[in-house]
Description:
Elements: H1 3-23, H2 26-46, H3 58-88, H4 91-96, H5 101-131, H6 140-167, H7 171-175, H8 178-187, H9 199-205, H10 209-221, H11 237-265, H12 268-282
Amino acid sequence: MSTFATTARIGVRRGLIELKQSLRSYTDLAGMLFPSAILLVVMLFMRGSTIGTTGFSLGAATLPSSIGMSVAFGGLMALAQSMAVEREDGTLLRAKATPNGMQAYLISKVFSVSVGSVIGLLLLLVPGAFLFDGLALGSVGSWLLLALVLLIGLVATMPLGAVIGAMFKNPRYANLMTLPMMGMVGISGIFFPLSEAARWLQDLAQVFPIYWLGLGMRHALLPDSLKVVEIGGSWRPVEMVLVLTAWAVAGLILAPVVLRRMARRESGSNMERLREKAMKRVT
């Protein structure tokens, strides 16, 4: 068996262990279920409203956008927060000290975050299919497009999440990234058609991957008649793929450089210093 295959097998096994631990933790389970439950309740309150003159439920139209948002949060924040915590508790140092340990560590994170994103998607989509009418769930093409957008979205966001996690030594600082993330959600047309916003706000939102993930999910799960409320009256699949691919390429170029620099700086004395700071925060 090749070295990479062995490393990948170890990484996947580690990712499975992390998933099992999360599913057995009441805190982690609440972290998975509570945001999805809140979003579904919000969408239920929006169900009576319609989008423009289409007559289509705003709640149903928000469901795919929320799925895109959850994929972005999983790829960016889950990986960043996990890496920041494990940098402080010495997990990264132990990975660095073993042969191919960093590669196995990153594979485990990619695996666990990817599976977690699929779980988050199902937590919204399965109950949403029963709560909202009009979703385009009956065709194979919709499911294939959903899988494609999910895959591209994870590749576009996870390398950036790794970069963010490598930049912050303190987990609390990594958590502060939630604030700009919520700002991006607010301008990305997740809860309202972006075509109704000011032109400068439309241009700004289209720079970031959250808008394109939401658009791709709407393309996959909403009837084709709803594209009239999108910018340009189109789902713009080519632009969606190009922008997300550009983010993926940028992340894949930047992430190895930042991670190598972070790994070089990890040492026993550095870990002890970080642990002392963590203990001071607790006390």
